[in-house]
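Following up on my earlier message about NAP. Here are the inputs again, as you asked, copied directly from the submission form:
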Amino acid sequence: MAASANIVLLGKIGQLGWELHRDLQPLGRVIALDYPQIDFTRPAELLSIVESLQPALIVNAVAYTNVDKAESEPELCDQINCLTVEQLAQHAARRRCGLIHISTDYVFDGSQSRPYTEEDQPHPLNHYGRSKLAGEQAVLANAPACWVLRTAWLYSRRANDFVQRVLTWSRQQEILKIVDDQIGSPTWARLLSQIISLALAQARGDYFEFIQATRGVYHLAGDGAASRLAWVEKILELDPARHEQKTRQVLPAKTAEFPTPAQRPLFTALDCSKFERVFGLRLPAWDQALALAMEK
Ligand SMILES: NC(=O)c1ccc[n+]([C@@H]2O[C@H](COP(=O)([O-])OP(=O)(O)OC[C@H]3O[C@@H](n4cnc5c(N)ncnc54)[C@H](OP(=O)(O)O)[C@@H]3O)[C@@H](O)[C@H]2O)c1
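Thanks, got it. Here's what our run produced:
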């Protein structure tokens, strides 16, 4: 049954979508869609394509992810992160189809000092976070078989992700100033995709029943937490071409020194023990994952 189910992956080029396109393959007939076939700003067309494919499972890896730009493009951000998602969730309800939706640590305001659990109250500080929270609520209000997976600080080792940007700065600048008052859970997109796929394999092809039985919000991020500064220092330490680095010093800075259009939560470490309890799977420590991601 597993190999014959249609799985529609929305977004196959983003950090997570790229990995999911590969990891979902053993779980069914994967139909991976991206621009120009699908556009989340045109929900009617998107829904008619999804309808024609009759998926047993929809995995949504599309999102408006530009946190700063979202402040000046709120309608576009809402359309992609919430309004179209609501229609997908309604489709999932009509067609008895499982829905996996990805959300973010930025639904929290960061005022807590212990890792956030799924029971903690969201309170986003910026428009991106508000749109993602509204997307979560739309999924939970409509889809009878859904997982809302909140992740954090994703990197992919592809294109211009955070790790690559740090490596590039290290080739150009002798001194890096990095904030030490933002704490989060760095997460390698490859391992996130793998753990989602391993959890889905437990459905043995009956995605609707399994996801309905395990329905809800889950935190799923690299184990532990680090400041941006500690993350950058680890990237530089693990850099396989360290001899190319020009950087001699990494200095701590404060978020307030780098004003950005969107306010960011300062502490968003995620407690992922619920996912481990339910599925018996956990992501490794963030620095262990980073070491694997940076191996040549
Ligand atoms: N990145 C992070 O640090 C982070 C942290 C926490 C949670 N998350 C969540 O994790 C999920 C995956 O994030 P990611 O880092 O993989 O994001 P990403 O690399 O930005 O990928 C998102 C994908 O969605 C596509 N997209 C945007 N607008 C679209 C539209 N109108 N129609 C169709 N496709 C569209 C993007 O295409 P274009 O690039 O061509 O626009 C991109 O391929 C998202 O739900 C995100 O909110 C991310």
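One observation from looking it over: The pocket of NAP is lined by residues 11, 13-17, 35, 38-41, 61-65, 80, 102, 104-105, 132, 151-154 (CB under 6 Å). Hope that helps, and feel free to reply on this thread.
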